[in-house]
Amino acid sequence: xxxxxxxxxxxxxxxxxxxxxxxxxxxxxxxxxxxxxxxxxxxxxxxxxxxxxxxxxxxxxxxxxxxxxxxxxxxxxxxxxxxxxxxxxxxxxxxxxxxxxxxxxxxxxxxxxxxxxxxxxxxxxxxxxxxxxxxxxxxxxxxxxxxxxxxxxxxxxxxxxxxxxxxxxxxxxxxxxxxxxxxxxxxxxxxxxxxxxxxxxxxxxxxxxxxxxxxxxxxxxxxxxxxxxxxxxxxxxxxxxxxxxxxxxxxxxxxxxxxxxxxxxxxxxxxxxxxxxxxxxxxxxxxxxxxxxxxxxxxxxxxxxxxxxxxxxxxxxxxxxxxxxxxxxxxxxxxxxxxxxxxxxxxxxxxxxxxxxxxxxxxxxxxxxxxxxxxxxxxxxxxxxxxxxxxxxxxxxxxxxxxxxxxxxxxxxxxxxxxxxxxxxxxxxxxxxxxxxxxxxxxxxxxxxxxxxxxxxxxxxxxxxxxxxxxxxxxxxxxxxxxxxxxxxxxxxxxxxxxxxxxxxxxxxxxxxxxxxxxxxxxxxxxxxxxxxxxxxxxxxxxxxxxxxxxxxxxxxx
Length: 558
What we know:
alpha+beta
């Protein structure tokens, strides 16, 4: 093997055209990449975190303090850095909140693990210690820190939404958007085959309209489309409509490419043209005869057929986005029709493929007309209309509102919350340090470092709020240490709910203050950050192949 690699095993050139970095050097590079990414997002953590402005290669501007959005827009080339970007995206998909925290914790775990390895602790020992610490931490959160929502009341849901959006652009509007998030998500409740409640976030449709202030945003039950009715002569509302969702166009039929018709009589040409128009007329007539009074098409409908529908008292909406069409079909109990052909080869409209609702109407919003479907039979939908000064503000408002919907969904489905403001991290730090002393092996060093890594969250929260982090964290640890030593019925046991009040620069009972987060968010965050750190720690060799050199074309100058 010594003949394959050069003399320097740390950074040697392969004879196959590449470089190899091994041992401590590759670990240090990976940790540096992770810390660089964490440094980008850490100042955006917390209710007083700052925003980032990102400008891409074509000049598109994005202003956000959402960790997943920021990292998604960064062009990260380092392989270890890409793992952290994927980690933030996974947290955003599964939980919706905690994307910045998960990156900060993963980077801190890596940094502290690297210090242990430099002190001759084997990576396998560190990995075992981290896994054990993560398991104990998740168990502690579920048993000691989690609170049931039904004991706290409905107000807890608003507080969870409020905590999520407090660090974002919507935080300045108090409980206005938090209450809207809870109402809009509660309206779309369904049950799965096990009988458990489910709250699909994609059933909440978010529309953005420029102009007016954010406080003029509104919410209503029903599904809204940013499309008007096709014809101006159509009625503005249809009660108890029969709804057809079609994925084909109702236009004058044309022969397919490559089809040729040879005629020997000029009179036949006019008959062919008439038949081309009649094919679509027959399809339109079939829909009308089937009692369809509202047609949503993902494609176009010609003027002459729009006139037919208008005369029959039906309304049509064209160029509906495919995603919206699928949602309308699911909500109203309709099927997306790609053709009217049946198994016999004839064309007909199956009544079972039509949906129903209480009302379809056209409403004026700002300078545009929108179509609203109310009282869908199969699945209720709700629509939130966000108002804002410009598109950058509206985009950030949408991201913030979506995060709050995801947090409320997790609480409604799991039924458990934990106090926020760094209280969970401080409690875990005290608990894991005392747990580490019960172990007689080297893993206790890794568990202590894991515990100290979690303090990076309350530390960063207080630094971002321009407060004295050392004094606040010391006091917070003292409170949680007293809480864990106290008996269950002692007043001191309630100190476990204490966390940071960043506006006042002191500690407070975050359950009473209403600073709550989904318990699932914390557990997923710890599991994801630990797994990501372990994946990067396991790497002790990086072999990178150089891109193949293209031979210069001698005629290229011509």
